[in-house]
Design a protein that fits this description.
This protein has a four-stranded antiparallel beta sheet, covered by helices on one side. Helix 1 (2-59) crosses helix 2. The radius of gyration is 22 Å and the shape is elongated. It has two helices and four strands; from the N terminus they run αββαββ. The longest helix is centred in the N-terminal third of the chain and has 58 residues, at 2-59. The chain has one domain (2-182). It is α+β, with helices and mostly antiparallel strands and 183 residues long.
């Protein structure tokens, strides 16, 4: 009889410790996952940015907005093209754009731009990107009046912001979080 009571108490203690551990470690685990995804995405945008800078230096010609990033692979600037890991979750492929009008192909590119999608997980990834860029937890929101001009949002070399409620056609849905890297 004593063995049964000791067994029941042991099982109850195990369950209590498991619940306490999950309550304590769960949020830390989620933050670690967001940090890992943020580091991955910033590494990819930085890799594309460096490849574009090398190409501009070698060829002596600025990169035109909306240039196909795949063109960097055959020329040896990238071994493979980094793919946005958030495409399956509502994100868009990385693009090279002009911050003054991201829908235009008439200007020289000055940013690498990638939509992460929207939702709570993307918010945490975006906050982590901004923390890694020494910008704190704040995720700036793009003003609707800005239209397709993201210049006010991309003043730092690297960061993340939230697109306005109209979205940017072909680049980001309404409310998407966007990672960028200046070229």
């Amino acid at each position: 009889m004593v063995n049964v009571l000791v067994g029941i108490i042991g099982v109850l203690l195990f369950i209590a410790l498991a619940l306490a551990g999950a309550a304590f470690i769960g949020p830390r685990f989620m933050q670690a996952m967001a940090n890992s995804k943020a580091m991955s995405v910033t590494q990819m945008t930085s890799q594309i940015t460096m490849a574009l800078s090398l190409r501009r230096g070698d060829e002596g010609v600025p990169v035109v907005a909306r240039t196909q990033l795949m063109s960097l692979v055959p020329k040896g600037y990238l071994k493979t093209l980094p793919l946005n890991p958030f495409i399956g979750e509502g994100g868009f492929p990385f693009r090279v754009l002009y911050s003054g009008d991201v829908e235009s192909s008439l200007y020289y590119a000055d940013i690498v731009f990638g939509s992460l999608g929207h939702g709570n997980e993307m918010l945490h990834v975006c906050q982590s990107i901004n923390r890694q860029a020494n910008r704190g937890d704040d995720v700036p929101q793009m003003a609707l009046e800005a239209g397709t001009n993201v210049t006010a949002m991309v003043k730092e070399p690297l960061g993340c912001f939230q697109v306005h409620s109209a979205g940017i056609y072909g680049e980001a849905n309404p409310g998407d979080y966007v990672v960028y890297s200046r070229i």
